[in-house]
Design brief:
With 832 residues, this protein is mainly α. The chain is built from 37 helices and six strands.
Length: 832
Amino acid sequence: HPHPNTQRPLVWIRRGTMGKSTKPAAAPPDTISLHRKLDPIYECVDTGQNKAALKLIGDLLKKYPTLQIARVLKGITLSRMGMEDQGMELCEEVRAEGPADDTVLNTLALFYKNVGAAQQQVEMFEQASERDPRNAEHLTLLFQAYARAYDFVKQQQCAMKLYRLTNNPKHVMWAICAMLMQADANPTALALAAGMCSKLEAKGSIADRESLLVYARVLRESGQGEKALELLEGDLGERLLPMAAERAVLCATQAAALGKSEAAAKHWRALLTHAPDDWAAMSRVLDIAMPTTRAAAAHKPQVPAGDTRMAARSHSVGGAGFAKVSSEGFWSDDETVAELLGRVSVKDGPDRAEAIERGRTVSAEVRAAADALGGALEVGRGAYLLDAEFAWRAAQLGDPESKVGDAMMTYWRDFGHWTSCARDLRPYCDAIRRTNARAAREFSDRFVDAASAMPEPERVVGGDGAKEARRHLRRVIAAHAIASQLGRCGGSWRVTPGDRDAPFGLARPSLGRGEGRGRAAAAMELYRRSKSTFAGPDPREPTPADTAALLAMQALCAEATGHAAVAARGGGGEGVDGSLREAAMSLLAAAAVAEEGVAASPNHAELRLGLTSVYALLGAATAARDAFAPLDVKNIQMDSMIHHVLPIAEGGATPQVTFRVTRFADNLRDEARRDVPDGIVKAYENGIYTKALEFVDFHERLRASHSLAAATVARVRATLRETSCGGGVTVLRETREGKGRPVYAGVPGPVMGALDAAAKACQGLLTHTSGTTANARYNEDLGTNPVWSPPHHGASALAVPDWWTVTSRADLPPGCAVAVAGAHDAGAGGAD
């Protein structure tokens, strides 16, 4: 069936003369009777009755064999029945005849869009516009065809032709958007776009929010940042940006980009009056009050007016860095190391004391404002978490680090019964782990001791007694989760100190023999004690008790890492087998813990991803696939989550697993090819210019996606291996009716060696720093990686063996640089 989001019913297409061919017809068609004959054909095509449509079209063509609309409808029907080549041949014949009828043109355009033939669509509307250069409708369709083909130069030219015909300022905005999108290849386009925006402003044609945002972006990207700020702060900005909070964010972001700290602070403070729980605003005010300090609770950069293009290799925001690979292992220059560790160098003196006092004042003022508005239940918890943020920044300026622990403890006492408590404090746990392991251990013990010292609430059935029991257990679980983030259960690869074989950001946490099992036993006791207390109406939903099971799994995997490291260092010496057995037993125990957790809460994503990883490390690829499958990862998630499943698919699972996973990735690419151009066209039609720019950037993200390329290579390799091993492989190929039909993909034996070599060459595209990978977009979401599973930069099939050998250098040629995680990491990838 046609995709419901991308194909409008054919009966909606305006009917004209139905297009008579230049070839001699058998007889001139009668328009009224022809409409009666076409109506049931449209109905059949729209409802997917392809065989019936084909029969009706055949009857019509017997009488009018050269009728263009009938031949195009036949082409559409044939393509939907899997005979795309025959459909294309028919439609190309009609296009070659130079159809002038709008119905034929629109129906042909529908065919070309559905089969992804953007260039043919462009050429068709170019021909139509050449025949009738003052036809605004044809020019509009031509502009849309250029938009679908991502031809920005011709978009600009066509939009200006439209403006000269219509004098409609929206067509100028179309041209300006096209200039923005070609700015990388043609920097002079920005200056021209700025001039055009200025003329529109002078004529009063910057009259809506979208036009204003595009204007501000053009000014910013053309180097006129001061004017962009004036625009946003001025009367036009006030009139066209009626939401005060949005305007404050845009003004503050632009002022900060210009280095205007005071102006930025004024706007951030204004934002807090409208959105008192806006964490980015609070943190930015502290940035200004305490310059040279770095935030622990990071946030992504604010989106400027009109948005911005995604940078190449935008897999890391602040806090991540690169480590060079050499024959001696990893190395980083001192500046990179300082960046990774989050340390800052501030001289002693009055400036330091003044900065601390300014920060203290900001924190107190924000908290007082929140109290005045009713406290955390009314305005949110951000103002109260800001005390911990201030303490962390003050520690960078020389205040005792113990004050950070005090602020964290206060926050836990006030908000430990909130589900978000441990997650809120994680950035500070990570920051302390990075800079002072001893302090991290002390703070960890403090939280566990505080939880143990809490008096048990009175056991009262129902009512307030049950509520207080849940609050008590939430605080206890939060304390243990915070202690785990400080390293009690091994910590995380994000903050584990590096060494020669694995740098910071790629190293794994570990615990000694028996230590992880002891921590896991305590966590599981807490889990089993808490589970019934949090039982809700839907037993499948995650509960706070699940956190305890997750901590037990983390501790066991950290101990497994320790045993694997001992075995790897032991080479072939005695005790290696014992260490490997101990590692395997720890992983088996982790699997048992996770299975118990997901049995009670099957929708808990962290437990499932952890269980997937553990089974993969045990070599149980089928069990890993079964653990991962209920997450139902597909469509856009394949771009950010496929790194969890490719090591399974290429590391021991059946070929069908690879084919299924990569089919989802292929579906994402196909849907994007079909839907994103539609989104661009609709955005232009509706005057939502920033959305059109966003769709173009999304197209670029998927076009250069490392994860989707990896999936393609995995599919090719699996197909060739199956073909090579069996002389052929039967696969299900999707037809356009959505049904699978078996296709025998056998290849003659003498070709097998060449095919296998081709498969290895495909793998090389991803593992070496070639031109292909240098411009790749690394969209993998490393925030979903289990704490014992750092980014893997080698071949997916070797991810598990590399974990067991405790090395991060596999498959990385000397001289390349790899991204290593930091507090703000959002992906992984290699760079020259």
